[in-house]
Request: fold
Amino acid sequence: MLIDLKLSGQTVMVIGGGKEATRKVKSFLDSGAIIWMISRDFSDDALNLGETKQVNLLKTEIKDAQTFIDSLKPKPDILLAATDNAKLNHDLIKTALSYGCLVYAVDNAALSDFILPAIAKVGNVKVAISTGGKSPAMAHVLRERIEKLITPQDLLAIELQEKIRNTLKNSISNPKDRSKLLYEILDNENIKRALLENNLELAQKLALTLVEKGETKQ
Reply:
């Protein structure tokens, strides 16, 4: 089961500064979370994220997981152990769990509370791809395929649907009738043509005409 957590204002702490840790961090960049990366060394990509204020970097060496987690005030909401030291990752996860943190270990799925699927992201569209940990490489390939399938027309259709949904909430009380009309707008050939021509204004006018007709049937 894939769940998109609401993390705005929550603290996500990633222990590790290499390529794998940076890849995991990027999964959280648009979540609104407060992100920390903690490591004795950082990759160039991680340093760039710090310089652009997308994440907070703390350069330090963790010698004892228990002492480190105990010292954190407040504790993170989510902790990811992404170092190249399997024992340290294990100890970090075990200690963080004792404080009620959600945890993820890059090298131990059994210890993790969740998985981080590959995310296909185009505009406001996000599609999660998971192979259950069997093939991260294939998840990456599938992500690229899906991103190529989502067209500019699809993104405009989403924007149009948002505008029309807000209008329908004030004009048509029955949820089933609203849903039916939204699908009619999606399937309308004239609206599709307008979106294909990148003419959102015309598409909205055509959609509103359908809404008016739907209102007269109420």
